[in-house]
Design brief:
- The chain is α/β, with parallel strands linked by helices and 330 residues long.
- It starts with 13 loop residues before the first helix and ends in an 8-residue tail after the last helix.
- The longest helix has 19 residues.
- The chain is built from 14 helices and 13 strands.
- The radius of gyration is 20 Å and the shape is globular.
- 41% of the residues are buried.
- The protein folds into two domains: 222 residues, 3-Layer(aba) Sandwich (Rossmann fold), CATH 3.40.50; 94 residues, Helicase, Ruva Protein, domain 3.
- It has a five-stranded parallel beta sheet.
- A hairpin with a 2-residue loop joins β7 and β8.
């Protein structure tokens, strides 16, 4: 056992899963008080947080993308920074810059906006690809290198970025390397008429974010992430994930299949989903529930798929039907 009481060699115990459940319920309750009628979106957001990943929220303007990101940020007692991605944003605005101190006669590092537990990147695809690339090292390695010096980022660390569809005016496409670093992509979608009516009633006179208070803290989130990482995944489940991503690389519907990083992200997300379901082991259903959110944004359709007006989400659905599901036990 370690100092924190964790057994790194074993699956999480019942008390560990109770902690995961309790934190998830508190976060979901706080966020759904702001985001009306989107419990599935909130659940996926919490899943990505617990899996230690980053989240890309893509949809048309005005459906609550930034509100979702801000709701999660305010629900956690941790450091939060917001980056408004604009065409004139520089990479140094994100990572930080070394400034010469005349009094001390030396260079001093001034941290950029990326130095926070929760980073809200608003409309990330309105910045140039050069600036977007400033996030690559921090998102993958949880560190920033400036002028040859590496600065670690504190855990937990999650980037929640919003973007408008690429056909919207003034947007740049996200580089493939950038998209691949996001564990999952979700779409808000339009609310139901009932939820929209509730929205007008609750948001019409005041901002519900003003009443949102933290329901957990950074230390607890770190502990939850550790518990989730110990959820058992059998060899058959891991092989199922490999079979899915391998099939994506050979299908004629795609010109770029899923990366090895996507397989790792799918496993981590499936572990988080299993823990939220109260299980200490992953089953194929966990993989299937998250496959579209984790894989679709990384794939590049072939010209035939584009001409047929088929989405990469539909291609992932085909892959799930084609790849045999293992009959596994723990």
């Amino acid at each position: 056992m370690t100092e924190t009481g964790l057994d790194p060699s074993g699956s999480p115990q019942a008390a560990d899963l109770d902690l995961v459940h309790g934190v998830a319920d508190r976060l979901a309750g706080a966020m759904t008080s702001v985001i009306e009628g989107k419990s599935d979106v909130v659940r996926t957001t919490v899943t990505v947080l617990f899996a230690g990943g980053h989240l890309l929220i893509e949809d048309v303007p005005g459906v609550g993308k930034t509100m979702l990101a801000k709701a999660l940020a305010r629900s956690i007692d941790a450091t939060v920074r917001r980056i408004q991605f604009t065409p004139d944003l520089l990479p140094s605005d994100v990572t930080g810059v070394s400034i010469f101190n005349q009094d001390a006669r030396r260079f001093e590092f001034r941290p950029g906006a990326i130095f926070a537990n929760v980073v809200v990147g608003d409309e990330i695809n309105r910045a140039s690809p050069k600036t977007q690339s400033a996030l690559l090292e921090s998102m993958e390695e949880h560190q920033v290198t400036v002028d040859g010096t590496t600065y670690p980022l504190q855990a937990p660390f999650i980037v929640m970025a919003t973007q408008n569809p690429i056909e919207m005016e003034g947007t740049y496409p996200l580089p493939e390397a950038q998209r691949d670093r996001f564990m999952a992509r979700i779409s808000m979608g339009y609310p139901s008429p009932r939820a929209e009516l509730d929205l007008l009633e609750s948001h019409g006179a005041r901002d519900p974010l003003d009443d949102l208070v933290p329901v957990t803290d950074a230390k607890t989130i770190n502990l939850v992430v550790q518990h989730v990482s110990r959820v058992h995944a059998s060899p058959a489940v891991r092989q199922y994930i490999v079979d899915l991503v391998t099939r994506s690389r050979s299908t004629t519907a795609l010109r770029l299949g899923a990366s090895p990083r996507s397989a790792l992200h799918l496993l981590r997300a499936a572990r988080a989903h299993a823990a939220l379901e109260g299980r200490d082991h992953v089953i194929p259903d966990d993989v299937q529930v998250l496959a579209t959110a984790v894989l679709a944004h990384r794939l590049m359709p072939s010209s035939e798929t584009q001409l047929a007006r088929r989405t990469t989400a539909e291609v992932v659905a085909d892959l799930l039907r084609q790849v045999p599901v293992p009959a596994t036990s723990r």
